[in-house]
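User: Round two. Same drill as before: sequence, then structure, for each protein.

Assistant: Same drill it is. First protein:
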Amino acid sequence: MNVTRTVIVRNLSIPISIGVHEHEKHGPQRLLVSVEAEIEPAGRADDRLDTTLDYDLICDFIRAQARQPHVELQETVARRVLDFTLGLPGVVKVMVETRKPDVFDDCDYVGSRLSAKVTK
């Protein structure tokens, strides 16, 4: 049996300096980041961390983005997270979604989604 394994981080919230408008450059905004990382199929599911993808690595990288200099676009953050996650051992496909939930009163969020597969 070929089992698809996906490690998921959903809506990790970070305060980040982001945005193109002048008023967005004076303090951090809340950014929600989600990642779905498909990892290589495993033969047998062992109850050991070394047989899967440690989601702490992804979460720590996302949290570190809050300490980076100001960026204008959500796509910039999404691309950084995408590139990092694609570089992790065993990862074959990644989807990253970013959301700014506090921009408009009349919608839940504005966001961006990037996805890619490892090419060999």
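Second protein:
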Amino acid sequence: MQKRVIGECPICGHDLFVTKLECSHCHSEISGKFQLSKFNYLSKESLYFIELFIKNKGSIKQLEKELKVSYPTVKKMLNEVIENLGYKVETPDDDDEGNEEILNRLARGEISSEDALKMLKE
């Protein structure tokens, strides 16, 4: 059984690195200090969210349906993944930009007026 590569030491919490690679065909081995991807440091939940995000071609509307959560919840989850990858999340000074996005989605026909009202109230 193959195990998932972890990026954090379960004992002290510091970053881990790979020291040995092996070919699955000829069994050649390469030793050294190999850097892991940013994605190796993400939680299983974050990786699952990214997988669904890609599967749904970045459509927050589709993610809402698949995850059975609200638009703000999907945005929160996305922002957490962005931050965990080491990027800064730009946040509006107030809720105007979020409200504007809801109205834009309504105008594009992505959500119903009832959904828009519910989201605006949240």
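Helices lie at 44-55, 60-67, 71-84, 96-107, 113-121.

User: Perfect.
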